[in-house]
Automatic annotation (TrEMBL):
Positions of the FecR protein domain: 124-217
Membrane-spanning segments: 92-113
Name of the featured protein: Anti-FecI sigma factor, FecR
Chain ranges of the Protein FecR C-terminal domain: 263-331
Pfam families hit by this protein: FecR, FecR_C
Provenance organism: Spirosoma linguale (strain ATCC 33905 / DSM 74 / LMG 10896 / Claus 1)
Length: 332
C-alpha cells in the first residue's frame, strides 16, 4: 500500500477498483493498526488540542461504519417512483467519503502528516507480527509488531537516504560508494545518522531507545541537546522527551535485538517496562496492581513466538499470577 493511494483515497480521488483495494487493506489487521496509529499520532501531536473529556476515535468503529455503508440499503418498491440502484462508482465514492468524513473530522485533515511525500512507500506491521523489507539501497530493516516505516521508492546518487520509523526496527545499513548519508527520523525530532552499521531502534510516542551493534552512529536529539551524541558498539541511548529523561549505558547489544530470532532477553528490566512492551507490540492493556511489583526487575530469556508464550514464560520463570481478559492483562 502506498501513501499516494491513501492520500488520494482520503481526498475522494480514486477509481472504484482503487477504493476497493484501499478498503480491503484497511480491513486487514495491518490496515486497522495503520489507521489507529494515524489517528493517535494526530491526537498526540503538539498542534492538536482536545478537551480531556473527549476520547480519540476508534479505528474499529470507523471501519464498522464503513462496512455498514457498503451493505445495500433496503428499497421500497412503488408503482409511481422508480428505484435507482447506485452505480459501482457512486458506491465507491460514498465509501471513500464515509472514511474521509470520519477521519478528517477526527484528525484535522492530517496536519500531523503534512511532511509526507505522496509517493512514499509504507510498511506497517500488525500487532505481534515481524516483517523484513529491503530498502532501495539494499539495506534491510526488520520491523517488530505494531511498527511503521516510511521511505522513498528510490534514492538517487548523492541523495541522503532517509526513512521515518514509528515503532521498533533493526537496521542493517549498506555502505554506499559515494558515502551517502543514511538518516532515520524518529518521533519528537530525534534523528539517527549512519554510514554503514547495524543497530536496533525502539521509538514509541515520547520514548526512544537506540542500541548500536556494529559501526558508529550519530544521534541528534533536537532541541534537547546542544551537540550530537556519537555512539560506539554496545552503547544504549534512552530518551523520554516528555519526562526529559536521557541516559547512555553499555549493554549486550545482541540480547537487545534477540526479538528478531524469537527470543526476549531481560537484564534488570522492570515489570512496568515489560508491560509497556506488551502494549506497544501486541496492543493489549497491561495492569500491574501492586506499585512495588511494577518496580520489580527481572532477568532471563523467554520465547517470543506469541504473546501467550511470553505470558507463560513470565508466569513460569518469575512466579507471577497473570489473569487474561479481553484486550487486558492483569499481573499480580
Amino acid at each position: 500500500m502506498t501513501e499516494q493511494l491513501l492520500q488520494r483515497y482520503f481526498a475522494n480521488q480514486v477509481t472504484p477498483d482503487e477504493a476497493r483495494r484501499v478498503l480491503d487493506w484497511l480491513n486487514t489487521e495491518a490496515g486497522q493498526v495503520y489507521l489507529q496509529a494515524r489517528i493517535d499520532a494526530q491526537f498526540n501531536g503538539a498542534e492538536w488540542l482536545v478537551p480531556d473529556t473527549v476520547s480519540a476515535p476508534d479505528a474499529e468503529r470507523i471501519l464498522s461504519a464503513i462496512r455498514s455503508r457498503m451493505e445495500p440499503e433496503p428499497a421500497t418498491l412503488s408503482a409511481e417512483i422508480p428505484v435507482r440502484r447506485l452505480s459501482t462508482w457512486t458506491q465507491a465514492m460514498r465509501w471513500a467519503a464515509v472514511l474521509a468524513g470520519f477521519v478528517l473530522l477526527a484528525t484535522g485533515a492530517f496536519t500531523a502528516y503534512k511532511q509526507w511525500y505522496p509517493d512514499d512507500l509504507i510498511c506497517q506491521t500488525a500487532f505481534g507480527k515481524i516483517s523484513t523489507l529491503t530498502l532501495p539501497d539494499g539495506s534491510t530493516v526488520t520491523l517488530n509488531g505494531n511498527s511503521r516505516l516510511r521511505y522513498a521508492p528510490r534514492w538517487a546518487s548523492h541523495q541522503t537516504r532517509e526513512v521515518w520509523l514509528d515503532g521498533e526496527g533493526y537496521f542493517r545499513v549498506t555502505h554506499q560508494q559515494n558515502h551517502e548519508r543514511f538518516v532515520v527520523h524518529l518521533p519528537n525530532k530525534l534523528n539517527i545518522e549512519v554510514l554503514g552499521t547495524q543497530f536496533n531502534v525502539m521509538a514509541r510516542q515520547a520514548r526512544a531507545k537506540v542500541v548500536l551493534n556494529t559501526g558508529k552512529i550519530r544521534l541528534d536529539v533536537g532541541e534537547q541537546a546542544k551537540e550530537k551524541l556519537v555512539m560506539r558498539p554496545g552503547d544504549l541511548f534512552y530518551a523520554d522527551v516528555k519526562a526529559k529523561v536521557y541516559y547512555r549505558k553499555h549493554v549486550d547489544a545482541a540480547a537487545q535485538a534477540a526479538w528478531q530470532s524469537g527470543k526476549l532477553t531481560f537484564d534488570g528490566t522492570t515489570l512496568q517496562e515489560v508491560a509497556q512492551m506488551l502494549k506497544d507490540t501486541y496492543g493489549v492493556n497491561v495492569i500491574i496492581t501492586d506499585p512495588a511489583l511494577q518496580r520489580q526487575t527481572i532477568s532471563g530469556t523467554i520465547p517470543n513466538q506469541s504473546m501467550q508464550t511470553i505470558l507463560n514464560g513470565l508466569t513460569t520463570l518469575f512466579d507471577l499470577h497473570i489473569t487474561q481478559q479481553p484486550n487486558q492483562i492483569i499481573i499480580q
